């Protein structure tokens, strides 16, 4: 026997419904399980009597117990494993715990701990979350997607594991990234986990150490590339469109050579975006806009020097160019505000090595410079952005030179995880005598210098992608446009308070990320309606419509 349940709190689909399983099946369903919080009536009606300890606990009592157990774990990876196990058995309690302790737990369920979790994903693997679709399933991807138990998927985060954070090719071990990102969609923007599907596309790995590891969980051959790879991606996109027609696809941690091609190939065909390119761009631009309230000046008056010319760097530069154009600069002049140093030196026209297509718009007519230090000296940037995964690349000498050139130099050390950061907050503040406007990709603790405490801002994409995705979904946007990311960046910057800036922080506190996401979702939805990309009629009050749809982790009364 199955009992109907009113899924009135499923966020984007308030009229949806499902049938409630009984007994062990109910306890095994992480979306529906309440554990020891099942009431006496529910235990009798749903075949649970005897399958649970006799005492009934409230969710608040469960929360107290789980938090105590979590804090007893001795290191971040053990805490990650504990939270994953909780999520696998009781998602409502998991999200209640994370939302109540969001500043403490985001660094565990995502950066920086998720990097270590990915490297050890095969060893800590307990239970499948999401779907692994490999090259073995070519020609059958639609069939495979139908194996997913929830038919109304709205948000897919997918990776092929080639460029996981700054750690490189981790193949199938990269599944920790889609799982973590979707956890943040729910915790930070209220997207019901019922609608979320993490996917890893396993096309092999070029990581020889993984291939020689007898416990590696993925395909044990080199990466497939070229036409077979492109056909595999095309089949995947087509299958998603047929099986989950309302789903948005977020491309995550693909290698540079594939990330740009995939984004350009599909961004106008399906609702999709690349968080490494577009999400990073928006969060960085927001930090720069907020930082200029401390350093002074307009966007059009800055000069940016990037270390690293991959997805993140050129994505930031493209969005910065769009923002500078809004201040009246022609596109060519706006692009000249952005300069890049890659592994071979300054990106300029006429360099003997061939430039990748995504670098060419920012290859200026200028003499070649081989090092970052020389580029700082010659170009005299006002903003230094690290997206290279090169630890300690922002040396004390480079940071001190930035401080000599600028009263308030903007230093953005955005590479993840912490071990790949171009400099720490302490290094930036010490080398600049506390004058740096600093932001990082990974969290750093406050720094006290000369009697003043500086609280560094974390340029975490969690401020951007959950709100962008939510706004695109509630409006049923056919595309996720660059204009939406620009609106997201402007909105995030506007939410940085004077109190934040007084501490040196150019982002709001992570404790406010749920409200930040709601405001960004509203701005994105407004842009979708304005631009004609929305497939849903505009409601009278967009913000109220969004708030009515978000998931809040509370238990249902089943009987």
Biggest beta sheet summary: 7 strands, mixed
Compute the number of helices.
24
Helical coverage, percent range: 40-55%
* Strand order within the widest beta sheet: 10-9-8-11-12-13-16
| CATH arch. level architecture of the largest domain | 3-Layer(aba) Sandwich
- Alpha-beta classification: alpha/beta
Query: What integer value in Å does the Rg equal?
Result: 24 Å
Under CATH, the homologous superfamily of the largest domain reads: NAD(P)-binding Rossmann-like Domain
Overall pLDDT, averaged?
Answer: 94
The separation of the N and C termini measures: 14 Å
Contiguous low-pLDDT stretches (5 residues minimum) are: 1-17
What is the number of E strands?
Answer: 16
Count structural domains: 3
- Per CATH, the class of the largest domain reads Alpha Beta
Classify the beta-strand content into a percent band.
5-15%
Stated plainly, the CATH topology of the largest domain is called Rossmann fold
- Globally, the shape reads globular
Which descriptors apply to this entry?
alpha/beta; seven-stranded mixed β-sheet; five-stranded parallel β-sheet; Rossmann fold; 3 domains; disordered N terminus; 16 strands; 559 residues; Hemocyanin, N-terminal domain; single chain; 24 helices
């Amino acid at each position: 026997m199955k009992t109907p349940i009113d899924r009135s709190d499923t966020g984007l689909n308030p009229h949806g419904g499902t049938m409630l399983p009984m007994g062990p099946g109910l306890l095994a369903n992480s979306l529906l399980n309440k554990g020891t919080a099942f009431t006496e009536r529910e235990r009798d009606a749903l075949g649970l009597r005897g399958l649970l300890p006799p005492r009934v606990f409230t969710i608040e009592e469960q929360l107290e117990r789980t938090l105590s157990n979590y804090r007893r774990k001795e290191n971040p990876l053990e805490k990650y494993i504990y939270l994953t196990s909780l999520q696998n058995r009781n998602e409502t309690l998991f999200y209640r715990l994370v939302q109540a302790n969001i500043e403490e737990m985001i660094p565990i369920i995502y950066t920086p701990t998720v990097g270590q979790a990915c490297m050890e994903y095969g060893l800590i693997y307990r239970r499948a979350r999401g779907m692994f679709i490999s090259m073995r399933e070519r020609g059958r991807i639609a069939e495979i997607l139908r194996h997913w138990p929830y038919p109304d998927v709205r948000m897919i985060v997918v990776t092929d594991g080639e460029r996981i954070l700054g750690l490189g090719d981790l193949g199938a071990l990269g599944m920790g990234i889609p799982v973590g990102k979707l956890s943040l969609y729910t915790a930070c923007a209220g997207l019901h986990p019922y609608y979320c599907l993490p996917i890893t596309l396993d096309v092999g790995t070029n990581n020889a150490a993984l291939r020689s590891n007898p416990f590696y969980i993925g395909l044990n051959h080199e990466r497939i590339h070229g036409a077979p790879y492109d056909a595999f991606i095309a089949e995947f996109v087509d299958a998603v469109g047929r099986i989950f027609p309302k789903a948005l696809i977020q491309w995550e941690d693909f290698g540079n050579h594939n990330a740009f091609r995939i984004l350009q190939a599909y961004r106008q065909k399906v609702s999709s975006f690349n968080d490494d390119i577009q999400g990073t761009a928006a969060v960085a631009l927001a930090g720069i806009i907020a930082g200029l309230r401390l350093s002074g000046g307009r966007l059009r008056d800055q000069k940016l020097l990037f270390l690293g010319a991959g997805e993140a760097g050129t994505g930031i530069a493209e969005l910065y160019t769009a923002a500078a154009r809004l201040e009246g600069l022609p596109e060519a002049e706006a692009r000249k505000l952005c300069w890049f140093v890659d592994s071979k030196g300054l990106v300029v026209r006429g360099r003997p090595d061939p430039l990748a297509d995504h670098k060419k718009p920012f290859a200026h007519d200028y003499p070649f410079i081989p090092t970052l230090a020389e580029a700082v000296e010659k170009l005299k940037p006002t903003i230094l952005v690290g997206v290279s995964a090169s630890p300690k690349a922002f040396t004390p000498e480079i940071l001190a030179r930035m401080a000599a050139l600028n009263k308030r130099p903007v230093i953005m050390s955005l590479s993840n995880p912490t071990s790949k950061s171009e400099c720490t907050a302490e290094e930036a503040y010490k080398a600049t005598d506390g004058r740096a406007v600093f932001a990082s990709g990974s969290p750093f603790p406050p720094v006290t210098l000369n009697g003043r405490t500086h609280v560094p801002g974390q340029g975490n994409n969690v401020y951007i992608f959950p709100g962008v995705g939510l706004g695109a979904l509630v409006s049923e946007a056919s595309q996720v446009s660059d204009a939406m990311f620009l609106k997201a960046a402007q909105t995030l910057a506007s939410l940085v308070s004077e109190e934040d800036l007084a501490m040196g922080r150019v982002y709001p506190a992570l404790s406010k990320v749920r409200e930040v996401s709601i405001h960004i979702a509203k701005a994105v939805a407004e842009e979708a309606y304005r631009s004609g990309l929305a497939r849903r009629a505009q409601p009278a009050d967009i913000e109220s419509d969004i708030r009515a749809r978000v998931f809040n982790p509370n238990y249902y009364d089943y009987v």
